[in-house]
Amino acid sequence: xxxxxLHFMFHIQTKAHYYAQTILVGGAKYRATGRxxxxxxxxxxxxxxFFASSHFYxxxxxxxxxxxxxxFSDAGQYFGRTxxxxxxxxxxxxxPFWFNPLAFEWKVVRSDYEGERAKRASLLEDEHTRxxxxxxxxx
Amino acid sequence: MSRDVYRVAQRLDFFRLMSMYFGGIxxxxxxxxxxxxxxxxxxxxxALALFDEETIGDRxxxxxxxxxxxxxxxxxxxxxxxxxxxxxxxxWWASFMEVSGLLxxxxxxxxLKLTQYRRLFRFS
Lengths: 139, 124
Fold this sequence. Notes:
The complex is a heterodimer.
Chain A: H1 4-25, H2 44-72, H3 78-98, H4 106-125, H5 127-138
Chain B: H1 3-11, H2 14-23, H3 25-50, E1 55-56, E2 59-60, H4 66-72, H5 76-90, H6 92-104, H7 108-123
């Protein structure tokens, strides 16, 4: 298992997101879709901030919808009807981490975690950002 | 659209125009539609479940056979023209192995190969 379909779906969403954005709000320019051969580990917080609005929110939204549907659906065949949607959701959420080199190296995981925590702490120290985060939490 | 695309489009016959469209801007339109459809299907199924509308008259929404539902999510209708063409070219068993290999082998390059195959066979 090398996770090809995962990468494929993620790639589709990358292109779709930027294309739709360009149609909606303009601003056409070259967007790197990540076809290069990656050999360096990208830190978690960088990955997260780069892909959050384009992939992660959509992936989590799909997953939440599927869980809700699973709770309320009476039609049966839940797996048969939703496996492809689950796969899409999974690829949107997990692909950047799955294809990140050294993602399962324990040391790297720890430094990623520390980096993310430091970033969050520094963001929360800044008063303006804190207000913004609080507003988002209210919504 | 840019000037060079306009000029190329003026000089191509209809089928080559189709080919250019699907290899160029139509590819992106297709991607947007694909993602939108995934989102739409997901939300529609959620809405049907939430509002207890998962019936057609008094029948259930899902057919009795499970295997159809499983295969339905795989986009097999897209693959049949490929299977048919490869079947004539290489023989049915070999083409079956090739197609299922493409679907199951889960390598990025084979997936791209599959997309390329589909495009090639439909528009050449």
